[in-house]
Amino acid sequence: MTVVESASPLRIAILGAFPFPLDLGSQIYVRDQVRALTRAGASTTLLCYGTGNGASTDDIAINRVPHALSARKLRSGPSLGKPIADAALIGTFIAAHRRHRFDIALAHNVEAGLAALAARPLTGVPVVYVAHTLLGEELPHWGPAALDRTLAATGRAFGRLLARRCDGVLALCEAAAARFRNSARGPVAMIPPGLDPTPAPDADQRSHACKRFGLSPGRFAIYSGNLDRYQDLDLLGEAAARIPEFDVVVATHGEDSSVHPALRTVRVADHAEMRSLIAAAGVAVLPRRTPGGFPIKLLGYMEAAAPIVAIEGVAEGLIHDESAWLLPRAVCSEALADGIRRLLMDPERARRVGEAARRQLEAVHGWHSITERTLTLLECVRDRSAAAV
């Protein structure tokens, strides 16, 4: 469906309960979403915590919470400092609305959704909750194992609350959309994140990145991104211990920290070096077993035409032995090691799988069509909310 531009642009508040910019999945997704909506003619304002250390975003209008309350150094997941930063985000949103008179708010993740809802009685701005994950699946990873069932139930309750209170839901995968449709009061749309491919790193860039870390192009497997518990890096480490003939590399932008001893953890200088390492790898691995979202790193793997080894239900849209090597959610380390080894030892199959993943990216994840669908959802929610007044 083609979006017809209105006489005045849609004024969108985009709330993110995180520092920005950072070269992490959520921030990359929000950055690219803001730019795509702006290109489509919308008026966008990002509201977030403090300043991160990512690439320049001077083209994005940003309102940040006061520096002392910014939670700049907080890592992802629950923490004692988050409620203070979230309260400041509410105040920042209310103050920004007085200046911009927003038509709608896109609230990324649970804390931002709760902040937008808390402000709604004063702003009257309808809220679309952007569900990056299913909290009932992810929250147990942030607490002790003895509380797994309690945390899962708490996460599911928060998810239902947001679906019932928000005016619409944007889910990144069909599994999440199906869950929210059971309780949402407004429209639910499954709209995956986008990535418009750029030219691949050339041979010199790939060689230079490998040389810096002592790697042989095509002879190693890579995981890229954060080291949080829900990424299941212990499983990857156990798999790596079964294939000592290959390097299994964890490439991260953050500070190095202790991971499984069978994994090589490297800290990349910037996003360009990360792209070069992914393009040089023989296999790109996504060991995460938690469903309900769409890992942004997966788009980077697809852009590089990297042969992907991942878990069913997490790599949505990819097909086993066609555009990825998919394993069941109950996968053991032996099966994961076998999948990595299989592709590393079979370059022709790896090339075929990687090229199919790249075609899937080009067919499904272009920002132009994703932005049209997003604007259609936002305008539907805005119109429904106006009619209900």
Structure description:
Residues 1-6 have low confidence and may be disordered. The radius of gyration is 21 Å and the shape is globular. The chain is of the alpha/beta class and 389 residues long. The chain is 43% helix and 15% strand. The chain has 13 helices and 13 strands. The chain folds into two domains: 11-194 and 366-388, Rossmann fold; 203-364, 3-Layer(aba) Sandwich (Rossmann fold), CATH 3.40.50. Helix 2 (82-100) packs across helix 3 (109-123), helix 3 (109-123) packs parallel to helix 5 (148-165) and helix 10 (296-303) packs across helix 12. Helix 10 (296-303) links the parallel strand 11 (283-286) and strand 12 (308-311). The strands form two sheets. It has a seven-stranded parallel β-sheet, sandwiched between helices. Strands 10-9-8-11-12-13 form a six-stranded parallel β-sheet, sandwiched between helices.
Map the helices and strands.
Layout: E1 11-16, H1 25-39, E2 43-48, E3 62-64, H2 82-100, E4 104-108, H3 109-123, E5 127-131, H4 135-138, H5 148-165, E6 168-171, H6 174-181, E7 188-190, H7 203-213, E8 220-224, H8 233-241, E9 247-252, E10 264-267, H9 271-280, E11 283-286, H10 296-303, E12 308-311, E13 325-327, H11 333-344, H12 347-364, H13 367-388
Parallel strand pairs: 1-2, 1-4, 2-3, 4-5, 5-6, 6-7, 8-9, 8-11, 9-10, 11-12, 12-13
Give short descriptive properties of this protein.
389 residues; alpha/beta; Rossmann fold; 2 domains; seven-stranded parallel beta sheet; six-stranded parallel beta sheet; 13 helices; 15% strand; disordered N terminus
